[in-house]
Amino acid sequence: MTDTRESPLPPTADKARAVEDMFDRIAPRYDLLNRMLTLRMDVGWRRVAVRSLRLPAGSAVLDLACGTGDLCRALAAAGYNPIGADFSAGMLAAAHTDSPLVRADATRLPFGDHSLAGITCGFALRNFVELTPVLEECARVLRPHARIALLDVNEPTSAPARAVHGFWFRRVVPFVGGLVSDRQAYAYLPASTVYLPPRAELLDLVRRAGFTDVAHRSLGAGAAQLITGARA
Is 184 part of any domain? Predict the structure, then answer.
């Protein structure tokens, strides 16, 4: 078994528990560090994700792995009726949103079949133990033609951008995160990009889970990515 003292990535068997514990610990300063470490670009990325839904006003949209409620607030500002779900009690306790929140496992969502018009997910895909069960559960709770907007980190393709991104993400993020919050957690977050499959494979996983019109968009010079699609 991997020694988590040597590696920021927990072994697969322990990942769910380790990630939950980590987010419980960093919840109080999570929003502050998001703004600092992305130079507030994360705010704009969330707005792009919300705009990509293109749903009627008043639509019920689940923000999966809602954390402290950033996307819930953006969804509400756009005229949707958001519901937040997260498995971290610490994150839900630190949330700043008027939207209803529920503690839930992403593979066993407490919603009926075809009951939602949309789902967003911000910077959480790499934290799930397996993506396929999560995507299939999203497909189960969404109505036909409902929309998804999945936002996560990415690796820039150009060499100069990749060099800057690598230095910032793998050196600055753990250092600043350690000063302000929890060094182990902010070492995990950059390292966890290895859990994301390559773009073509990731898009294929989304399609096979039951989505059509699947598209990919790079944001922030390639530092983030947005995957969109419609429930078949």
Answer: yes
